[in-house]
Amino acid sequence: MKNTTLNLLLGAALTGIVSPALAGSSALVSVDPLSSHIAGLGHGTTVQLNVSGLTSHLGGYALDFVYDPQIVSIQSVSFGNNLNTPANQPLGEFTAPGTGRTGIFEVSLEDASWLSGQADHFTLANVTLESLHYGSSSLGLEYVSLSDASGNSLPVATSGGSVSVPEGSTALWGPCWLGMFTMFGGFLMRRQRNLAVN
């Protein structure tokens, strides 16, 4: 099962085969939340890549996470624990520099009996993004491939999201801090004058 699943996923990733989306029978891989924002440059936010509507136990997956590299970059990718135990995670992610495309995949090395306790919806991976410039970026899912515990391809549909970095989103703090420092400075000056008089 393990080798079959791995070969299926790698083959799909290399040839760009996407599982067909069959209405009523497809699992859904989605970005959550659908829309998110990052407050200022150099800050980050985390989105989840979730799967739902599984009718068979998931044995592995591969996908491309697509974004605008001018707006955000990938800071980190962490994986869920529904395909493997924390100590046994054959997973990976690869980002081609400047392309705005990160390949993410995971294959279960657990026995089919272990996967039998799997829910029909869970988080595949958590992706932390860091803002580079103001603007907005779609967060897409492409070349998505799912396989069951026996290595058989599962039909899949996808739902992407978006992230925005509003210009001036940190400017609200400027007047607040400026006002606080002004008040504090005035307090110190009055205190020094009182001390000088006394």
General description of the model:
- By secondary structure, this protein is α+β, with helices and mostly antiparallel strands.
- The protein has 2 domains: 2-167, Immunoglobulin-like, CATH 2.60.40; 168-198.
- It has helices spanning 2-15, 112-115, 173-197, and strands at residues 27-32, 35-37, 44-52, 58-66, 72-79, 91-95, 101-107, 122-131, 135-148, 153-154, 156-159, 161-165.
Bin the strand percentage: 35-45%
Q: How many structural domains are formed by the residues?
A: 2
User: What share of residues is helical?
Assistant: 10-25%
Alpha carbon gap, first and last residue: 87 Å
Layout of helices and strands, plus pairs?
Elements: H1 2-15, E1 27-32, E2 35-37, E3 44-52, E4 58-66, E5 72-79, E6 91-95, E7 101-107, H2 112-115, E8 122-131, E9 135-148, E10 153-154, E11 156-159, E12 161-165, H3 173-197
Parallel strand pairs: 1-11, 2-12
Antiparallel strand pairs: 1-3, 3-8, 4-7, 4-9, 5-8, 6-7, 9-10, 9-12
